[in-house]
C-alpha cells in the first residue's frame, strides 16, 4: 500500500424526505443568499422544485435561480452563473440534480473568485485558488459521485473539448440524498448511472499496487452490490432498499476512499470524455462501450491477467482456471457484457451512433500526438488506442 492523504468533509444527509431540510441546513452552514441551480424539466415534473422553493422560503433565505444545465454541461452556462453570483452577491450554491448540475456549480464556485475566464481553471492552465463559494446539493441521480468528489467536468461546446479540474476545497459542504428522488429516473439513465458507478470502482481496482486488500474488498462489495441492485430497480423502479444501495455505492465509489494507497488508472474516463466531447453521448453509455473492450485488449498483456482473473472470480463468481487464468478473465468480461446488454446500454460505438471519423484525433488528443502514453494499469500508445477504438467500433 502506498502512502496517502485523504480528507472528505462532506456531510451526507441520507434518507426519506431529507430534501425538506435543505433550507434549515443551508442556514446552519451560514448561507444568506442562495443560487438554486438545476437542469431541465425533471425536478418540476417530480415536484422536487416546489419542495425546494418552499424549504428556502420557510427558512427565510433569499434565492435566485439558474436553470438550464444540460448533460455534458457547458462552460457557457458556467460563465452566466458566475456573472449572476457576482451581480446578486450569492454566498451559497445549491445544485439540485445529477452530476452535470453539481459540476456546473463546482466550476462556478471557483470561477467567481477568478479574474480571468473560467476556462483557464477548467483546462488546468491556472490552478484554482483558496477562495470559493460553497456548494451544497440535492442529488437526484446516483452516477457521477460529484456529491462528494473533489473534481468537476465541463465541456466547451465551441471546441468540443470536455475536461475537468479539481481541488480539495471542491467537495460539497453537504449532500442531501433521498433515494425516493431517483424513482423517476428512466431505465436508461438508471443503467447509465450504475455503469458510471461501476467504472469509478474499476478505474481504481485495476492497479498493480500490491497489498491493497481492504480497498480491493470494499471495491468488490460496491461492484457486486450495484450489479445485484441494478437488476432489481430495472424491474421495480420504486424499490427503496435497492435505490438506497445504489445511491450509497455511487458516493463511496467516487469519494476516493477506495483509491487510498494505490495507483489509479482513469484511462477509460479519459477516452470517454474524448468521445462525449465530440458526440454528446451519455457518460455511462460511453463507459459501457469502452470498459469491456479495454479489458479484452488487456487479455493480451500477461501482466494484466492476474487482476482481471481476480475480478472475474470475486465480482462475477467465475470459476478460477489455474491452468489458464486468461480464460477466467474472459469469462468476467463476458458476464460484464451480459449485464450491459440486459440493462439496455450500447456495447459498440456504432450502436451509440458514433462513427470512426474522429479516431485519429482522439488518439492524438490522448497521447499528445503520440509523444506520450496514456493509462497506468497498462500504458496505451497512440497505436494501441487506435486498435482499441477499432475493437469498440
Ligand atoms: O435536466 P433534467 O431534466 O434534470 O434531466 C436529467 C438529465 O437529462 C436527468 N435526471 C436527473 N435526475 C433525474 C432525471 N430524470 C428523471 N428523474 C430524476 N431523478 O438525467 C439526465 C442526466 O443528468 P446528468 O446530471 O448529466 O447525469 P450524471 O449524473 O450521470 O452526470 C454526468 C456528468 O458528470 C460527469 C460526466 O462526465 C458528465 O458530464 N462526471 C463527473 C464526475 C465528478 N464530478 O466527480 C466524475 C464522473 O466520472 C463524470 O465524469
Ligand atoms: Zn464517471
Describe this protein's structure.
The chain has 393 residues and is an alpha/beta fold. The chain has two domains: 11-181, 3-Layer(aba) Sandwich (Rossmann fold), CATH 3.40.50.1970; 185-392, Dehydroquinate synthase-like, alpha domain (Up-down Bundle), CATH 1.20.1090.10. It is 48% helix and 10% strand. The strands form two sheets. The chain has a six-stranded parallel beta sheet with strand order 1-8-5-4-2-3, with helices on one face. Strands 6-7 form a two-stranded antiparallel sheet. Helix 8 packs antiparallel against helix 9 (240-254), helix 11 (283-298) packs across helix 15 (382-392) and helix 12 (305-316) crosses helix 13 (325-342). The longest helix is centred in the middle third of the chain and has 23 residues, at 213-235. It is globular. The mean pLDDT is 97. It binds 5,6-dihydroxy-NADP (NZQ) and zinc ion. This is Iron-containing alcohol dehydrogenase. InterPro entries: ADH_Fe/GldA, ADH_Fe_C, BDH-like.
Number of strands: 8
The chain-level structural class is alpha/beta
Could you give me the name of the CATH homologous superfamily of the largest domain? Dehydroquinate synthase-like - alpha domain
CATH class of the largest domain: Mainly Alpha
pLDDT averaged residue by residue? 97
Low-confidence stretches are none
Bound molecules: 5,6-dihydroxy-NADP, zinc ion
- Nearest-angstrom radius of gyration? 21 Å
Number of helical runs? 15
Q: What level of helicity do the residues show?
A: 40-55%
Spatial order of the strands forming the largest sheet: 1-8-5-4-2-3
Beta-strand content bin: 5-15%
Keywords: Oxidoreductase
Pfam family, one: Fe-ADH
Domain Fe-containing alcohol dehydrogenase-like C-terminal: 190-390
Protein name: Iron-containing alcohol dehydrogenase
